[in-house]
Amino acid sequence: MPVDAEAVVVSNTRLPGGYSVLEFRAPELAALAEPGQFVMVRASRCDAPLLRRPYSIFDLVRDPDGRPAGFTLLNKRVGVGSGLLYDAAPGAHFCCLGPLGRPFTLVAPPVEAWMVAGGVGLAPFATLAPALAARGVATTLFYGGRTSADIFCLDRFERHGVRVVTATEDGSLGERGRVTVPLQAALEAVPPERAVMVYACGPEPMLKAVADLATRFGRPSEVSMERHMGCGLGGCYSCVVRVKTQDGGSRYARTCIEGPVLRGDEVLWE
Amino acid sequence: MGVDLSVQLGPLRLKTPLMSASGCFGYGVEYAGVVDLASLGAVVVKGLFLNERDGHPPPRIVETPSGMLNAIGLQGIGVHRFVREKMPELRQLGATVIVNVCGTTVDEYVEVSKVLSDTEGVAALELNISCPNIKEGGISFGCSLAGTRRVVSAVRRATRLPIIPKLTPNVTDVASFAAAAEEAGADAVSLVNTFLAMAIDVEARRPKLSNGMGGLSGPAIRPIAVRMVYECARLVKIPVIGIGGIVSAADVLEFLIAGATAVQVGTANFVDPFIWGKLEAGLRSYLERHGIPRVADLVGSLQTGSAR
Ligand SMILES: Cc1cc2nc3c(=O)[nH]c(=O)nc-3n(C[C@H](O)[C@H](O)[C@H](O)COP(=O)(O)O)c2cc1C
Q: How far is B13 from chain A (nearest CA, A)?
């Protein structure tokens, strides 16, 4: 059951490339959140922009006693709503509805976790990584962007013992090419008896490529879909994605309540 | 002072004048975790045809100044699955359920209405003759007086449930449609559905919605909707339900004073699913402040003479 928290901006750390990390204080919302869930943020109190924006929960923040205190969002300035968040000053209030959506399925050893991120698609993995680390799961992050400016926050992952593999299209950091290049190499190299679960979040062409690769190599995958959402609660039917049905047909599923995390082999990619 | 928020909608008594607008509240059950469905005047569920419908490909919505366009295309599970899968939970939650009935033919409206008439717990039928987003049926009935009469009178013969045709604003004289619906046996009318509209991505020179056009809703349409409700309420004797851009208690009051007996809230529920308690509290405090014992006393209370 979600709450609509009056979340207070604690800090807004600007990163290169129009990205920023906003930390919010919202203990009651943070206490409910699971890796892969999202919040609907109201960027304004008037009619412009009218609708809330979906954001993956990035980090869960704890107070010195270890109790949930808040969360962070990874924001990229693109339109009006994300611009208001980029410009937000500490002390500002935003209504945040959440946590919403179906979280990632957590694997347990001996299954390994391979997280594949593109751009702001990194966001849900910052909470997935520590949750997997707590279970003792061996975890790798494949992280791709156009240039080195799209790659950040690696320390958050290395801190939890995550092995990090980066790829940039211009070759400015890590391997040259898309993130699927090192992913495919790893899928080819790993012996079949080692069980691997692939998690992906990022632009849709990347999700499709990752899900197809995982399926081709006989590995299960979960993808976190980022769709235009009107309400986040299943009311408006705007955030749909085509999924396969058991009878061999297909239907539109609402990513806000049946997702955002869906099985990679269940999505019928357009 | 305790105030009375109940209103009489033809044969139907509602606890409050506040209802969810169709298509903006799923089948109601989606909201059971955030809203006490029994506290609403009624839950109006998403439009239903006889069979399941796929709806349009995404993108299905686009934000516009103080509003949004949608072209969902009436994705839905069909009336039979609704009755089997959703009605038991809605009844258990104590919701007053109004079903938005769709059809591509007059026969389909009749068939869907018959199924719902045989279903325990359905309080009324809202006839959607006003969806701008589908090719066949729907708005093509709602844009012609003869079509409106045909659908309403055929359903009238098929059910004893209260029927509420939902009118489109995409006509020159909406009040004449309210009158036609009244003559054909409607118990109330609701208005407005969305305004047919369009938004273009200038970089790509393509429509922003996959369907090309869509329906405009939200605060942007409120003044036009208030005017249309006012015109209808003056012309017909049956109750009018006001819809369009409500985001606050003041907006609800505007519709009631213009002549609406009750209202529906659509787009604003997307922005704030906890809006219902706030609207109700706002209504109560207004009535107390003005010493008005019953919300029904406000209906159509617009003063049009010169002030003082
Ligand atoms: C996403 C969406 C879906 C809708 N679906 C329906 C529907 O299935 N049947 C219907 O009669 N009206 C439908 N409508 C129209 C609304 O019920 C309402 O008439 C309109 O949105 C104006 O009210 P509002 O400004 O409060 O949203 C829909 C509106 C939206 C925004």
A: 26
Q: Which fold has domain B7-54+74-195+215-298?
A: TIM Barrel (3.20.20)
pTM: 0.95
Give the residue, out of B22, B45, B63, B190, with the most ligand 1 atoms within 8 A of its beta carbon, to mutate for a pocket test: B22
Q: What tens digit of pLDDT does each residue of B92-108 get?
A: 999 999 999 999 999 99
* A116 and A220 both lie in a single domain: yes
Helical H segments across A31-152, by residue range? 80-87, 125-134
The pLDDT tens digits of the residues spanning A81-112 come to 999 999 999 999 999 999 999 999 999 999 99
Are A96 and A129 in the same domain? no
Instruction: Output the DSSP codes for B222-249.
Output: HHHHHHHHHHHHHH-SS-EEEES---SH
What's the Cα-to-Cα distance from B28 to each of B21, B90, B150, B186, rounded to whole Å? 10, 7, 30, 24
- Which residues of B are less than 8 Å from A258 in CB distance? none
Instruction: Check A48 against B65: CB less than 8 A apart.
Output: yes
Question: Closest Cα to residue B191, out of B133, B134, B258, B105?
Answer: B258
Residue nearest to atom 18 of ligand 1 (CA): B193
pLDDT higher than threshold 80 for residue B1: no
Amino acid B128: pLDDT: 96
| pLDDT-derived band at B136, boundaries 50, 70, 90 | low
Q: Are A123 and A83 members of one domain?
A: no
Which residues of B are part of the catalytic machinery?
131
Assess if residue A253 is contained within a domain: no
User: For residue A105, what are its two tokens?
Assistant: 């399925």
